[in-house]
Amino acid sequence: VKNTSQYFGPKGSIAKITNGMNCSNCHLDAGTKPLGLNFGSVYSTYPKFRERSGTIETIYKRVNDCFERSLNGIPLETGSKEMQAIYAYIKWLGQGIKKGEKVKGSGYENLPFMTFASNPEKGNEIYKTKCASCHQQNGKGVLDSNKIMYIYPPLWGEHSYNEGAGLHQNSKLAGFIKNNMPQPVDHRHPSLTTEESWQLAAFINNQPRPHKDVSKDWPNLSKKPFDYPAGPYIDTFSAHQHQFGPYQPIVDFYKKFSK
Asked: How far is CA 163 from the centre of its chain?
């Protein structure tokens, strides 16, 4: 989890099957940081039905989703010792949590919506002052001296997460940013405002990144997230509004639709 690229990156010692990011670039502190996409509730809540695939997914499937999307690579064999090691780690972290229970601090924070659309240009200005010193102005991040792993991961470009990754939804990225960036901050001591987090997410996710065929995602279109940046949709809101907001009218539509 901490050294994924060492084993599976472009110079991986086992296989060269990912973009060079580590699992811990998103799942902070090796999946243990509250509101840092931690693994605390994974073992207690899987297997479970996920609307994105329209199927019941196992932990193995969920891990491989990250390999294919966030790491823009190919899946691991379920029986491989590396996959079994990841599974054992997730199980170990979930010790003592009742089946079906989701612990506080899991995942990311759902931020309050803004009443207006996010503006990537405003996000760019915030990025220059708050983020570029680590992730670089070109968004390509910084590799270690051995050019094997990222000290600061790329936020866009060929070595970043692809269009099918969860963080490509602005709500997820904004919630992640608010409680974790710029490091070292946490949910108790954030340095960015909610608006800054939304604007940054809009800018970052508006940059070029690897393509992923998502045509089979969300087979039930009525369950598609309000901020999913790729159609089709069952509503009449524009793709631009789905990507940048304002989101409340979209959420209100689906609340009425589901009744």
From this structure: 10
Is the pLDDT at 258 greater than 90, yes or no?
no
Q: Please give the Cα distance from 210 to 220 (Å, whole number).
A: 25
| Residue 259 scores a pLDDT above 80 | no
To 10 degrees, the CA torsion angle through 227, 229, 235, 240? Answer: 100
Reference 139, options 67, 186, 203, 212; nearest CA is: 203
How far is it, in rounded angstroms, from Cα 136 to Cα 254?
39
Distance between CA 170 and CA 228 in Å, rounded? Answer: 8
The amino acid sitting at 6 is: Q
End-to-end Cα distance, the chain? 42
| pTM, rounded to two decimals | 0.96
Identify which of 163, 170, 148, 157 has the alpha carbon closest to the alpha carbon of residue 20: 148
State both tokens at 201. 């997410």
Number of residues assigned to the chain: 259
Dump pLDDT digits (tens) for 211-224.
999 999 999 999 99
pLDDT in tens, 231-242: 999 999 999 999
64 exposure class (CB count in 10 Å sphere: 0-12, 13-18, 19+): buried
Name the burial class of residue 226, with classes exposed (0-12), middle (13-18) and buried (19+) by CB atoms within 10 angstroms of its CB: buried
Q: At what angle do helices 120-130 and 194-205 cross, to 10 degrees?
A: 100
